[in-house]
């Protein structure tokens, strides 16, 4: 695949969708860290999901083989993506559907808005979809006078609270049930004033609220977890059943899907339907797995449109290291194990894709220079790589993107960054024994500063302001060796 696939330019699209924040990650993260309630909510939720996931993964004797199979299928898909997308288009069209190609978020929003307008409907119901969040579809629909109604419970909470998602799988993970009760009382028409914060009661209130939408709305918009190229079949997996209502009741169904979601064969789907639920929700299988192929007379929507979204993905494919991020199946396992995400939450990342996968996906979709702080939003501990069901080497991509950022900085400013100068000096010192030994002796001068939390003096204080200064030993190994 070349960088001009689907008519895309050599650089990623800019200025559209929800892929960047208004401030760098360190600034937003500092504010999140000060919110004790947020940290309690995140710690409880991610800990619960981790425990459930670990339990069901432990039941599978060939889990590592499944992971490797998922990785191999995704690598094969990316290697021949144009061919598979053309095969998908042919199969969907033959089954009575219509395929649209969208180069970026602006074009995708226009296509969907025009399709909804053509039906005469002024309201749509939506299945949970990261792709539509990415392109800012809700805002585009509202600007056209069309009301989007989120039907996923967590997405509904975010929408009613005029909030933003902070997790891929559980968008309202930053809210506790007391906060959700207040949102329902304030924003949900006709809700019982005596509403309690019991989860079952809150879910029942949302169900009553949505029932009217399901029965009176004739257009639905969905994403897709997978698309099978050989049959033209689309698949959505979920836990609540609201998605199935959207996929079966309306007259018109519009699916917006990132081009990387295609897989070659029906048999490949078997692998991902084992990997995804265990890694994401800690379930052996998804309670609701909905699949449809084009249009079936007198059964389900009679007008089906598939919008294939590029929005920077073709540019990612040109990067042999970074393209791994397109293997992502949106399970959120990396978020649930990340120590950085658990303490800052998703809003600090500024993108609809938070956590480790967002730190490598968002900068590539927008251009690294537009999201330069995200590749540094990691301790490189590697927990994300260990948890990923398709074995995306997120730490290596993070280092790769950091190098790209440093190179871009050097090219723009015609001089190396302070970090580059420091690293070069350290490399030279370590390559010359007398200098290295002298540096070891002088490092003892930092023991008092480190003990009192002052770190290193400027300009090195920029490093220790966010890190604990390790205490140098009272004796170096070389000195100990000479004595013995």
Structural summary, described in words:
By secondary structure, the protein is α/β, with parallel strands linked by helices. Among the domains are: 236 residues, Rossmann fold; 66 residues, no CATH class. The protein contains 23 helices and ten strands. The strands form two sheets. It has a six-stranded parallel sheet with strand order 1-10-7-4-2-3, with helices on both faces. It has a four-stranded mixed sheet with strand order 8-5-6-9, with helices on both faces. The longest helix is centred in the N-terminal third of the chain and has 22 residues. The protein is globular, with a radius of gyration of 25 Å. One of its GO terms (molecular function) is metal ion binding.
Distance between the termini: 62 Å
The biggest beta sheet, please?
A: 6 strands, parallel
Q: Shape from CA axes?
A: globular
Helix percent reads 40-55%
Helices and strands: which structural class? alpha/beta
Looking at the structure, the CATH topology of the domain at 78-313 is: Rossmann fold
- Let me know the average pLDDT: 90
The strand order across the widest sheet is: 1-10-7-4-2-3
Would you identify the regions where 5 or more consecutive residues have pLDDT less than 50?
A: 1-5, 7-15, 449-453
Tally the helices: what do you get?
Answer: 23
CATH-scheme architecture of the domain at 78-313 = 3-Layer(aba) Sandwich
Radius of gyration: 25 Å
What's the level 1 CATH class of the domain at 78-313?
Answer: Alpha Beta
Number of strands: 10
């Amino acid at each position: 695949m070349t960088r001009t696939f689907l008519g895309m330019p050599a650089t990623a699209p800019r200025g559209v969708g929800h892929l960047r924040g208004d401030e760098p990650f360190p600034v937003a993260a500092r504010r999140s860290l000060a919110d004790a309630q947020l940290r309690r909510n995140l710690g409880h939720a991610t800990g619960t999901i981790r425990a459930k996931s670990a339990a069901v993964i432990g039941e599978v004797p060939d889990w590592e083989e499944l992971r490797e199979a998922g990785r191999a299928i995704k690598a094969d898909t990316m290697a021949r993506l144009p061919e598979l997308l053309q095969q998908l288009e042919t199969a969907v069209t033959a089954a009575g559907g219509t395929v649209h190609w969208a180069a970026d978020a602006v074009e995708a929003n226009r296509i969907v808005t025009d399709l909804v307008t053509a039906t005469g409907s002024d309201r749509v119901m939506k299945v949970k979809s990261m792709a539509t969040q990415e392109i800012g579809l809700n805002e585009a629909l509202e600007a056209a006078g069309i009301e989007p109604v989120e039907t996923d419970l967590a997405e509904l909470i975010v929408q009613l609270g005029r909030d933003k998602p902070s997790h891929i799988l559980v968008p309202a993970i930053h809210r506790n049930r007391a906060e959700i009760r207040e949102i329902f009382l304030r924003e949900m028409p006709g809700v019982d004033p005596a509403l309690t914060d019991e989860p079952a009661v809150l879910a029942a209130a949302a169900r009553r609220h949505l029932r009217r939408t399901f029965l009176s709305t004739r257009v639905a918009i969905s994403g897709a977890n997978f698309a099978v190229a050989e049959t033209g079949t689309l698949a959505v997996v979920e836990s609540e059943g609201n998605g199935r209502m959207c996929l079966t009741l309306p007259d018109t169904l519009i699916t917006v899907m990132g081009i990387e979601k295609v897989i070659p064969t029906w048999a490949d789907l078997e692998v991902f339907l084992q990997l995804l639920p265990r890694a994401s929700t800690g379930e052996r299988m998804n309670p609701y797995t909905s699949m449809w192929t084009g249009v079936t007379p007198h059964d389900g929507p009679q007008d089906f449109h598939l919008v294939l979204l590029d929005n920077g993905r073709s540019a990612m494919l040109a990067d042999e290291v970074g393209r791994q991020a397109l293997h992502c199946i949106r399970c959120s396992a990396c978020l649930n194990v990340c120590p950085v995400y658990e303490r800052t939450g998703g809003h600090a990342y500024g993108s609809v894709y938070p956590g480790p996968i967002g730190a490598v996906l968002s900068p590539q979709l927008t251009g690294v220079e537009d999201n330069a702080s995200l590749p540094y939003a990691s301790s490189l501990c590697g927990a994300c790589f260990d948890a990923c069901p398709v074995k995306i080497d997120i730490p290596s991509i993070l280092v790769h993107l950091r190098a790209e950022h440093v190179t871009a900085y050097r090219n723009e400013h015609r001089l190396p960054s302070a970090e580059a100068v420091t690293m070069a000096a350290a490399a030279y010192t370590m390559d010359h024994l007398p200098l290295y030994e002298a540096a070891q002796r002088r490092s003892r001068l930092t023991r008092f500063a480190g003990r009192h939390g002052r770190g290193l003096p400027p300009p090195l204080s920029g490093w220790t302001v966010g890190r604990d200064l390790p205490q140098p030993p009272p004796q170096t190994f070389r000195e100990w060796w000479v004595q013995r």
